[in-house]
Amino acid sequence: AERGINIFENINLQDTGLQLTIFESAAITRAQSAIDLLNRLTLWLSVTSLALLGAAILLASSRAATVFHIGLGLAAGMVALLVGLSWSRGYYLDTIGAAKTIDVPAATSFFDIIAASLRASVQQAFGVSLLLATIGFSLSPYPFAVRLRTTVWRY
After folding, report:
1. Each residue of 73-83: pLDDT tens digit?
2. Residue 128 pLDDT class (50, 70, 90 cuts)
3. Rounded to two decimals, what is the model's pTM?
4. Exposed (0-12), middle (13-18) or buried (19+): which is 49, by Cβ within 10 Å?
5. HEC string for the chain
6. What is the mean pLDDT of the chain?
């Protein structure tokens, strides 16, 4: 090993019969195939989404209001993702606990470690979408936004 802990290299675990089960499912190969497909489509889905958002802003009669609506829509999507992640964590742990084949604290730690980067990315996207919504609203033609702008610019 070039990096990391190398004291375990001389231990042969195949003879011990030790097995670490993270998740048991017959549908795991289908899920892996779906994940592989999504990984291959990541770049194209991102570019297409940004192009469609840009086109919506360019074609809108009120671009600021469209930016506001896009920001709110993205924020709602991020909230839905966080709720779904929380629900899936509970479902996963309930399934593990009912099966009694895997240690629940280990499964909890595994899920939390795997989901940590996703949760952080969604939270960052939520913050950016709220910033977009704030900028779009503050520049929009809505009466409250106009009053707010005139009041702020007066001082």
Report:
1. 999 999 999 99
2. very high
3. 0.71
4. exposed
5. CCCCCCCCCCCCCCCCCCCCCCCCCCCHHHHHHHHHHHHHHHHHHHHHHHHHHHHHHHHCCCHHHHHHHHHHHHHHHHHHHHHHHHHHHHHHHHHHHHHCCCCHHHHHHHHHHHHHHHHHHHHHHHHHHHHHHHHHHHCCCCHHHHHHHHHHHHC
6. 88
